[in-house]
Amino acid sequence: MCCITGCASFSMYWAIKAKKMNIWLSYGKFLPENLSDLTFYLGIVLGCLLTFLFFIGILLVTRIKHCIISCPVIIIICQGAHDLIQFGVCTFIIFIVYYMLGILSLAAGFYGKEAFTDYCNNRDLDYWSGFALFDYVKEIDNTYLELNKQLMCTDICPCSKYNERAYQGYNFTAKNFSGSNKNVIKCIEGNQYSDKWDYDVLNYLQELEKNYKCSGLCSAQTFLMFTDFTEIPNKASCYSSIGGELERDMGNMGYVFLSCGTFVFCAWFCAFGLCFRDKQAKELREHIRAKKYIMEGTMDNSEIGGLQSHQDGVNDVTKGGGDDENLVQNQTIDQSLNNVIHSKADKKSNRKTQRQKAFNNNNNNPVYTKKNQYNNENSGNQNSSQYPKQFKPYGQNQQYKQNPNYQKNNSSQSYFDGDSTSPSYGFKENESGSQQGNFNNTGGFKNNYQKNNQYQSNYQEGNANSYQQKNQYSYQQNNDQVQYQRAPSRKPRGGQFKMFFPKPFTISRTNMILSVEVKPAVFELKQIRASSQNQSYISPKNGYICFHFSHIDDQEHVQNETRKTFVMTMGQVRQILDIDPDSKYKKGYVTDATDIESEEKDGEEVFFSFQKQNSQNILNMKVKEMESNRQYQFTYFEVVNNSDIQHTMSIDITAGELKVIQILVRYAMPSLLGWNGALDPKVCGLFFKNTQLDY
């Protein structure tokens, strides 16, 4: 019930909030059935209905339900009721309406964002032309264009002077700056264009500019239309901000409606069982009342029954005076009610009788179990000759059974059950005459009997056996103790392991080729402590990533003799991952080529350095962002004698190729530190240190 009240509150709150949101007012009227008005009215109505059903549900729980119907299909007419309220039908209808509103809101937000994105990228315009929401996209674009060309800083709406230093490089020959207007808010009304504006759209654009400092739909306009334009020119377009607001606001509305619909469905599902609750409760009450009446009647007439038995005979219970007829009837009903109890008691008695017969039949052939074996040992009966040879006990965790289906295996001296394919727990004798219990593969004990018939049970030995089976330990067995010796997981052949060489990622251009490959960390077996006999895997050398730069001749042959390699270690990985090719596009930065004369700026540069051991030369790699077509330049060069730059090699790559390199570097990071061996020990045997590592 609390969930229903919460859904009602959220429904009415979001309905009122949607009515006040400018994006809903401007966007909803371009959708079928005016989605903004539809969500407002339905949200209020559904919230009121849920509040009403909350009180109805309280009446259902408190059993005050003279005119409440719970089943959504069958109409049940209660006794003494004249009004019918179909609680289940109402909740089911509300659930359907909530889900429809939620799906429509989510679809409107998602498709609205896609329409703005495709319109500004000039894609699939014929596809979107058949949708009513596409008119909203064109309406916003036309509004921006009309405000900029027909109203902003024209003779109808002259503007005030602007900051010339901020607008340096801009030319506004067709604009009028002889007035005092800093935006178009005062100029919208009171002219011949006042009737053509959609004021819901204008209010939304004003709010959008205030929150995101943008103007223009697909391309950024020079002037801010609704705020002070004199201080700084506009540099951002608004289509990405509009798409984000549509997806966020309408998505939140859709999720609220879907959540409310889910809670209402749960309420309907729980109320569905109330259709049959009254009938079952009534039958249970009648059954208890009848049983209570029978018990009271039996107790009241017990003395009368005793008198009739003495006067008229044992079997003649209907003769004489008194309430004999009622007594017979009560006894019959009581007997029918207790049939189940008597039947259960008979079954238990039959099982006891069968067990007693089985015990009597087997007196001449006793069964030795764990319990009687323990009792015999405690009573001082240590003579094992009283047992047959095949039933000689060997451990407290075993239980022998005398079964003619047991067959003896001559080769292994173990016993097999004829009804099972697995060997049962038996014993075998060794040449020294001692008896040993068969090893329990389920993790039990391994028990040894010496010649003096003294029982030994080594718990640690049992744990070692189970651990041996899990981790593939080999063991050597003596007469008195068990010694374990660890076997390596992978035995080398001739002291050398096979190395693994992954295929590099290659980028080829007309005269240059870049190859990226990973060199994983290597492992070796080493005894860490002198007292320990076990060897451990360690990683003496971390991995690295190689960037190979090579020239290509006119015959498209790679000149390996000119190859230069830069080594990237784990400490430099974060620098290449920090590069974001989509940073400007995520911010919505778009320039207007007609109004802005921007100066070329140097792109972002990231430097990497590496120095070999016992070498004075410093190897460097530079990643530079180019200004055109989202290109990046990878440059290799060496610094000799701290000043001279030699062996310079450069290659241009695209933003997509840079993303591929970043993904490969990200997935190679665990192998650089040897974490792949920690996560999967089988990897250690593939990367043993057997050769000198070269760069």
TrEMBL record:
GO terms for biological process: regulation of DNA-templated transcription. InterPro entries: ssDNA-bd_transcriptional_reg. Residues 372-415, 432-451, 476-485 have a biased composition (Low complexity). The chain crosses the membrane at residues 38-61, 73-101, 255-276. Residues 304-451, 476-496 are annotated as: Disordered. Residues 327-341 have a biased composition (Polar residues). It comes from the Eukaryota. GO terms for molecular function: DNA binding. The keyword Translocase does not apply. Keywords: Membrane, Transmembrane, Transmembrane helix. This is Tetraspanin family protein.
